């Protein structure tokens, strides 16, 4: 079996750049919709009469459960059908669900709306990863993925800035009256403002993005293209059990720190330092934009640099480097004073924590056959969502509410939960480097598929 190389004529540099740009824009909106919830924790808890644990279910389980579960059938479609159409429908769905979050009058209503956000966002990332792998050479895939991952932090930063601005603007207004809706609180208005632009982006995506030709298709012994059915995906994963066990578990623990801090940092700074939502929005918006943005781009560059130097486990190595750099500051930042020093250590944590996004994705994409890439990504995102977003955010709340018994001790909870997760994640990623090298060599030896080549030169970055 020989993998078909993508010819130089399969899309211009301008086309490839546009696809990355519009996918990144969609990712920005998805994280704005997702992240704004954490900044509005106190007014939502007050108006809906929620506990920390209930709020963690809204920001964690409600989103992650359907995001993870629906990711599998949607990814299976993405490995066979038009990826731009799938992404367009997903953008429209999560944007509508975000808008409906602003109509919530109870925990149950908000929970269902966040479920809708999760279902819609499940359509974007696996399909986008799959398209990028058909457009860029493996030696430059890390930078393309880094640019895409940057969207999550631009979106997170924008959510903090926009949310902080809107909350500050209407902080003295008990309720606003809107046509057809009636009286709404400031946090509800924020959801309306954040959700509606996505409907326009969904239409633009549908009209302007073409599905790239698929390349790197695995074939069976007779030379026929394998269908990439889920049973074949699981068979492929079983053939690399040690590699994917270390990859999935290691990056999930690593991601637990990054995604958990995105959810809980606003509450920590409001409770510990007495900052207002507007102050927190501006401070964390700057941290996420600068530290996470720089980290994800540097992480993508590092993956490509290590790969270019001949390290077939370059993506795993980049993950180890980031996890090591993150461990100490994530333990220290909740316990130092003054606030600027805490924010500085948080920024260091976020910089190194962001390496996980391009590194984990590049590792999956270079090893997996084309017709399995979206499904392998979806399986990874399933575990990541349930563990990092679902369990990770809720575990902090349970430790704060149950073990420590005080909302004011959330900093201790963050250090304890995410410090342990960081150490375990680092160890697993280190242990996974050698199996990953073996898996790369075995794929080339057994299938004849050149896992280091599959796309034209000329990429973003």
UniProtKB/TrEMBL annotation:
Q: How does it sit in the membrane?
A: Multi-pass membrane protein
Show where the Major facilitator superfamily (MFS) profile domain sits: 19-437
Against InterPro entries, the record matches this protein to:
MFS, MFS_dom, MFS_spinster-like, MFS_trans_sf
Question: Which Gene3D superfamilies did the record assign?
Answer: MFS general substrate transporter like domains
| Localization | Cell membrane
Q: Which residues form a coiled coil?
A: none
Q: Keyword annotations for this protein?
A: Membrane, Transmembrane, Transmembrane helix, Transport
Instruction: Mark the transmembrane ranges.
Output: 18-37, 57-78, 85-104, 110-132, 144-167, 187-209, 244-269, 281-303, 315-333, 339-357, 378-404, 416-436
Write the signal peptide boundaries: none
Highest taxon of source:
Bacteria
Quote the PANTHER family the UniProt record gives. Answer: PROTEIN SPINSTER (PTHR23505:SF79), SPINSTER (PTHR23505)
- Protein name stated in the entry: MFS transporter
